[in-house]
Amino acid sequence: MSLINQLIATVLAVLLGLVLSTLYILSDSSRETLLTQLESHAEDSATHLGLYLAPYMQEHDQATIATAVNAIFDSGFYQEINVTDSDNNILYNKVYDPASSINAPNWFIHLMPITPPEKVRKIAYQWQQVGSIHVRSRAGYAYEKLWQGVRNALIMFVSLSVLSALILSWLMRHLLRPLQGVEHQAMALARREYIEQPTLPRTRELRQVVSAMNLMVRQVQLMFDEQNRNIESLRSTAYRDSLTGLNNRRATLTQLTEHLEYRQDFGPASLIIFHLNDLQSLNHTLGEDATNHLIRNYAQGVQALAQSLGTHVVGRIGGADLALLAQRRSFDDWQLLLDPLLRKTQNQLQQQGADTEANIISIGIASCDSNTTAEQLLTQARLAQQEAEQGSDSSIVLYHAHQHQQGWSEQWQRHVASAIHNEQIFLQQQALLDSEDRCIHAEVFARILDQDNTPCQAGDFFGVARDLNLLEKIDRAIVKHALQFLQQNPDSPTLSLNLANQALAEQTFIDWLLHTLEHSGVTDRLSIEINETAILTHMERIKTLRQALGELNIRFGVDNFGTHPNGFSYLYALRPDYLKIDGSLVRQIDHSDEDRFFVSSLISVAHSLEIKAYAEHVERETQRLELEKMKIDGTQGYLHGMPSTLS
């Protein structure tokens, strides 16, 4: 029961007690008054009746006596009238019918016992005693009059009580409205939302409570903001290059491995190494500050280029070296994209008075199909960069072993497109386990068969699907197959589906998805995951989708969490059910203090928002042990087994 209702009930209970006590006292007083009146009335009646009946009593005229007694008996005040002669022989006796009911409740009669008064009058006529008259008053009359008064008082009390309750309720709600605001503040604070009440109540005690709550909200907000700043500072220290603001060498190499060897989300990719030639000479000619300014400017140019290419990895891997990983393009396309950056850097050097005849930047490009390791691709790009630096006619060199590659073969594109259009897609699953090896859910991966009817990895066909704008069709097929599997296997674990950025950009797909899920009947065994980059790209649309999924009892998760440069402030507004910490942050967690501290901070942030934190791409038991020390809620990766066919 709410505080307001408790106060109202307490006040009404006190009033009820007071009224009932008052009614009892008034009823008792009224009872005594009525008894006195009945006693007086009985005495008067006996006196007047005796004066009238005296001669008839002497003559024993029973007819006249009966007529007179009956005449006054019907007034209802009497229980019994008894007329006797001088020898106590009954001349006439009139008694009230005991079968007649009293117009009052039985509980009231038992609560207020009344003993009716009785009066006896000796009657004399002509100085001779002729008999006596006994008059007993009727208690029913007293009960009826007393109950009538109590009933009227109760009716008035109930009416006034209802009116008072309404007025009291309005008054209490008005006076205690600030407490509702405090409750709202406390609930919002638990969700990491910071709300202050701008208007302070006039009541001193309530004003102090509201002021204290506002102060606490400000203090907690400062504390949480400080925590976030510390985590972001740690991210910058551990994973950011202080000069350029890009990923440092360690973070860049880790993310290259993550994208090329695990996610394979680029498909065929190109890795570009930018090298600032003869850095020592530039420091000597321009000075260290000017050279650092030059490096920052050309790093900003590389970052701007990377952002225009879609999904990418960019970072600084050495004093004068930057690396960029993006979807594969032809050599001619790369030249068109990179020439403006070269000219801009050359112009900057010319403005600073440096010798611009030689190439200031050498660029090496290596392209690959799927199943190429990050180390192999880095070596190939480095060889091409060194060729450009050591006297090539061009500042841009493509690794020669791949110069013939211009993209997907038409035959493979037709095969992938046919498989997707015909929904020739099958699903694999990989379990997410808690610390006791219980399955939390199974993440679903899409696969197709190649021309040799051999299952191929996502990296072999997702790039083609992306280029052909078919990712939405893949997601539709995944959703259909997963729902069909859940409907046919009621004892299967929850399935987690990962939606593509390209599909989420289409409102028609989201509308179809929600309609399909709503009519599936298995929404309580389904989770939807969205990549962190996709969330930040379509924030408002994802918020709407997340709310709709919550109404369908579908869990919502953030995939590849923790690597986006914009941080994780979006968690406060989105409130996912869980997040999966990116595998690049987990890879060296059993060897790196920085990774351990950063991942531990991410888990703490998630738990403070009541969000489950899971880790993906866990391959070693030592990684799992470190994560469990940090209170991770679940782990997923090859440690628990390779993906298996969903069947």
Q: What attributes does this structure have?
A:
elongated, 647 residues, alpha/beta, 19 strands, 54% helix, eight-stranded mixed beta barrel
Helix content: 40-55%
CATH homologous superfamily designation of the largest domain: EAL domain
What's the main sheet like? 8 strands, mixed, barrel
CATH topology of the largest domain: TIM Barrel
End-to-end gap: 51 Å
Tell me the count of domains.
4
List segments where confidence is low: pLDDT < 50 over at least 5 consecutive residues.
402-406
- The average pLDDT score comes to 82
CATH class term of the largest domain = Alpha Beta
Principal-axis shape: elongated
Radius of gyration: 48 Å
CATH architecture assignment name of the largest domain: Alpha-Beta Barrel
Beta-strand portion reads 15-25%
What does this structure look like?
- The protein is of the alpha/beta class and 647 residues long.
- The chain folds into four domains: 3-168, Translation Initiation Factor IF3 (2-Layer Sandwich); 179-239; 252-402, 2-Layer Sandwich (Alpha-Beta Plaits); 410-645, TIM Barrel (Alpha-Beta Barrel).
- The protein is 54% helix and 17% strand.
- The protein is built from 22 helices and 19 strands.
- The strands form three sheets. The protein has an eight-stranded mixed β-barrel, surrounded by five helices. Strands 6-7-5-8-9 form a five-stranded mixed β-sheet, with helices on both faces. A four-stranded antiparallel β-sheet has the order 2-1-4-3, covered by helices on one side.
- Strand 10 and strand 11 (439-449) form a beta hairpin.
- The radius of gyration is 48 Å and the shape is elongated.
- The model is unreliable at 402-406 (pLDDT under 50).
- Residues 267-401 form the GGDEF domain.
- InterPro entries: Cyclic-di-GMP_PDE-like (IPR050706), EAL_dom (IPR001633), EAL_sf (IPR035919), GGDEF_dom (IPR000160), HAMP_dom (IPR003660), LapD_MoxY_N (IPR032244), LapD_MoxY_peri_C (IPR042461), Nucleotide_cyclase (IPR029787).
- The chain crosses the membrane at residues 6-26, 153-172.
- Residues 409-647 form the EAL domain.
- Keywords: Membrane, Transmembrane, Transmembrane helix.
